[in-house]
From TrEMBL:
SUPFAM superfamilies: CheY-like, PP2C-like
Keyword vocabulary terms for this entry: Coiled coil, Hydrolase
UniProt xrefs under PANTHER family: STAGE II SPORULATION PROTEIN E, STAGE II SPORULATION PROTEIN E-RELATED
Pfam families documented for this protein: SpoIIE
Entries under InterPro entries matching the protein: Bact_Sigma-Reg (IPR052016), CheY-like_superfamily (IPR011006), PPM-type-like_dom_sf (IPR036457), PPM-type_phosphatase-like_dom (IPR001932)
Keyword Coiled coil: yes
PPM-type phosphatase domain mapped to chain residues: 175-395
Designated name of the protein: SpoIIE family protein phosphatase
Coiled coil: 113-151
Presence of the UniProt keyword Hydrolase in the record: yes
């Protein structure tokens, strides 16, 4: 279907000249409607051609306010040309019958410019609507973000309440730690509890990822640890850590939440000064410092929550006098110098060897983070790429008896 022809309104006195001018304009596919007054033109008129003798120059301004207008004249009058410029006419054509082709080109060009102007106006209006809509969406997002931030802060406070008091000493062994989430909630977690006068149990966990979903796993871990602790009869302490890891492995797989964790679980026998432990892919591995030397606790195990029917190792180590046992989440590797993982692990070994307190190791990292783990997360400190936790157990020395 052909597009409708643009309608040109011709304002002139009736007669042979107007008819001839209409024929001149109508060539090349333009539709023309001739009238004596602007009010008589159809609403679909897109451009006006006004004869200077029929429409006085005083009326040109009102024409241009409504439609693009070209004035035609049979003679050139300088005064009229000045008026044409002042009122913003599209053009002023002298002897239009003689210059018919030029007149038609001017008309088509004026129509094209008018269409472009209308399209730009439409685009500006649409852009203004989109901006208004985006402002509403942005305001709504900021509101939801503020609510989410409040929820996360509340969750962080609850998570900190679940941590054990620190530092605390049980049976000659002192536990202290420093835990800083990368945002508000942490995927790192730990616990240190007395079972009876002989045994103290602890664990150190690093759940994959960080944020709300990982924090929920740490809450589940706390619940299961307390439940299993209540069920234990103090027999076979050497089997307890491995049995707990296997049970937690089943719990995470059955939950189907796609989360896994690395863990270290230990049972300290104050009577024999032995550490019964098992580990699930803990990295960095636990580092034991005593007598001026540092060593990795031996043993390897699979991560928890990835593979079914995993058996975890039953391991034992006799704790020497004045020992320090360091457990760090893998977030610490982001804070140590070194081009390779091995270089950073060696750097960590040197630091735990020379740092006799948790504060010294923390300060050696030179991080702009809260020194107090009970501080609120939204304090404007350095944003860490991962949760960072350091746990230190020390004991069996004169200072801790």
């Amino acid at each position: 279907m052909d597009a409708a022809k643009p309608l040109i309104g011709l304002l002139d006195e009736p007669g042979a000249y107007r008819d001839a001018l209409a024929d001149t304009i109508a060539r090349d596919g333009l539709a023309v409607y001739a009238a004596e007054r602007l009010e008589d033109l159809p609403a679909e008129t897109v451009l006006v051609v006004a004869h200077a003798q029929a429409i006085p120059s005083l009326a040109w301004s009102s024409l241009t306010e409504r439609l693009p207008t070209i004035v035609v004249s049979d003679s050139r009058l300088d005064a009229d040309l000045l008026t044409a410029v002042d009122v913003g006419l599209v053009d002023y054509v002298v002897e239009p019958m003689r210059h018919g082709q030029l007149l038609r080109r001017m008309i088509r060009k004026a129509i094209e410019l008018r269409q472009l102007e209308n399209e730009r106006k439409h685009d500006r209006e649409r852009l203004a609507q989109l901006n208004a809509h985006l402002e509403e969406l942005n305001e709504s997002l900021e509101t939801h973000l503020a609510l989410l931030r409040l929820d996360q802060q509340a969750g962080g406070q609850i998570q900190r309440k679940l941590l054990p008091p620190h530092p605390q000493s049980i049976g000659g062994v002192t536990c202290d730690y420093w835990l800083i989430p990368s945002l508000y909630l942490s995927g790192d977690f730990l616990d240190f509890q007395r079972f009876d006068e002989r045994y103290t149990l602890f664990y150190f966990a690093d759940v994959s990822g960080h944020g709300a979903s990982s924090a929920f796993v740490t809450v589940l871990l706390k619940y299961l640890f307390n439940r299993w602790l209540g069920d234990w009869d103090a027999r076979q302490p050497e089997a307890l850590p491995a049995r707990w890891l296997a049970a937690l492995n089943r719990e995470l797989l059955d939950a189907g939440i796609g989360k896994h964790a690395t863990l270290f679980v230990g049972v300290i026998d104050q009577q024999t000064r032995e550490l019964h432990y098992s580990l699930g892919a803990q990295l960095p591995k636990p580092l034991l410092v005593a007598d001026g030397e540092v060593l990795e606790l031996p043993g390897e195990g699979m991560p928890v929550g990835l593979f079914p029917d995993v058996e975890y190792p039953r391991l034992r180590y006799r704790l020497p006098p004045n020992f320090r046992l360091w457990l760090c989440s893998d977030g610490i590797l982001e804070c140590l110098p070194g081009e390779t993982l091995d270089a950073r692990l060696r750097e960590l070994e040197q630091r735990v060897l020379t740092c006799t307190t948790l504060e010294r190791l923390r300060d050696s990292l030179m991080l702009d983070t809260p020194r107090d783990i009970d501080a609120e997360g939204d304090d404007g400190g350095q944003e860490l790429p991962d949760d960072l936790t350091i746990m230190m157990l020390s004991g069996f020395g004169n200072d801790h008896e």
